[in-house]
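A reminder from the course coordinator: this example appears on the midterm review sheet, so study it carefully.

Given structure:
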């Protein structure tokens, strides 16, 4: 009879809950996760798991088994700048800081997987790397970790990651094949005109009128230049300019985001934003400065990795508790950096429990997770790592 990873995970459930509540009570923002990092290193050292520091507050642990293959498991560490308004014994003790996206659970699950896999390392047909990633909510520690070499020495062959999901009941998971999350490009556009009296607009160049034309024209890129079957978003989130109703200002600043589902569309939309903005602004006698940032790329699930994940999850929770997701998320996820470098599978771990009142959305001040999901996550991550190495 094979290993029962759900039993092994359930056996340490009390420890998992204690860990998660400790992290939840002491949230830290990206690249400030010093206490969190220390707790992780203390845990790994106690378990006899070697590790190195990476990406500032990040950690890369490794469990050396008997084989050449290496699989990696990833958990993110950072919290959000949000007030925790829950009423519970483990409410955040740091004002204006809260684990409102479940990274406390992700870190706990990775530590639990580390403990379980380390306890059976003589049966592992290869190595397991443990990626504790900082700053997922901001610039993404994954890219820095990769640049610092976590995917080598030994070479990582596959990566598995997860995210708690408040719309899925505990005991279930959601899996999407192909593209899972959008790529993101925040942008800003500074439009420069010539100031004038509001009663004499012909003596100036009105950047507000130019900006209005730009906002409308940019929407045509999505609605008329990309296939309607491919999700894409271009949102203008802020417009700033002017000081009084009777003054035409010198300049206006527009900022927004681009979200697309393929690297090809990402390159195309960025190019067209520049062309459209420059064309309109110059034709209306203005000048412009365009800054398009490179944020998270698209997250792609590899077919082979997904097959391993599905087979593993079926052994832990049964086929009936696996939901195949049809639509990708327009949200972004820094696990995407790993997915571009190695075959990867990223999935959603159910953490909703209406009977416990755990129904509130992520990035909200009442967010919580059903702690029964911790053992499920540990078991699936362990099973997936074990199956890949086998």
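Designed residues:
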């Amino acid at each position: 009879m094979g290993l029962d990873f759900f039993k092994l995970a359930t056996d340490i459930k009390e420890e998992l809950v204690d860990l998660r509540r400790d992290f939840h009570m002491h949230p830290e923002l990206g690249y400030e996760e010093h206490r969190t990092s220390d707790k992780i290193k203390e845990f790994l050292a106690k378990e006899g798991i070697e590790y190195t520091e990476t990406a500032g507050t990040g950690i890369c642990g490794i469990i050396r088994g008997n084989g050449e293959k290496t699989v990696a498991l990833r958990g993110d560490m950072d919290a959000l700048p949000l007030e925790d308004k829950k009423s519970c014994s483990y409410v955040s003790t740091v004002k204006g800081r809260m684990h409102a996206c479940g990274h406390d659970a992700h870190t706990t699950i990775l530590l639990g997987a580390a403990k379980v896999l380390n306890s059976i390392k003589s049966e592992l047909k290869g190595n397991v790397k443990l990626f504790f990633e900082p700053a997922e909510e901001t610039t993404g520690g994954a890219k820095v970790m990769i640049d610092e070499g976590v995917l080598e020495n030994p070479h990582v062959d596959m990566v598995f990651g997860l995210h708690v999901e408040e719309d899925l009941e505990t005991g279930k998971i959601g899996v999407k094949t192909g593209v899972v999350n959008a790529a993101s490009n925040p942008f800003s556009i500074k439009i420069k005109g010539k100031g004038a009296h509001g009663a004499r607009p012909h003596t100036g160049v009105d950047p507000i009128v130019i900006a209005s034309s730009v906002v409308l024209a940019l929407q045509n890129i999505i609605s008329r230049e990309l296939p309607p079957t491919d999700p894409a978003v271009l949102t203008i989130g802020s417009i700033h300019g002017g000081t009084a109703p009777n003054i035409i200002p010198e300049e206006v600043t527009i900022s927004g985001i681009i979200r697309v589902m393929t690297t090809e569309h990402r390159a195309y939309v960025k190019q067209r934003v520049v062309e459209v903005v420059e064309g309109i602004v110059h034709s209306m006698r203005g000048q412009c400065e365009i800054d398009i940032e490179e944020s998270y790329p698209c997250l792609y699930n590899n077919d082979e990795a997904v097959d391993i994940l599905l087979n593993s999850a079926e052994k832990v929770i049964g086929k009936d508790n696996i939901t195949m997701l049809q639509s990708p998320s327009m949200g972004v996820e820094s696990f995407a950096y790993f997915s571009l470098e190695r075959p990867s599978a990223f999935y959603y771990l159910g953490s909703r429990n209406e009977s416990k009142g755990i129904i509130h959305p992520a990035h909200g001040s009442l967010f919580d997770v059903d702690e029964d999901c911790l053992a499920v996550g540990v078991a699936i991550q362990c099973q997936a790592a074990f199956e890949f190495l086998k």
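The first strand starts at residue 50 and ends at 54. The mean pLDDT is 97.
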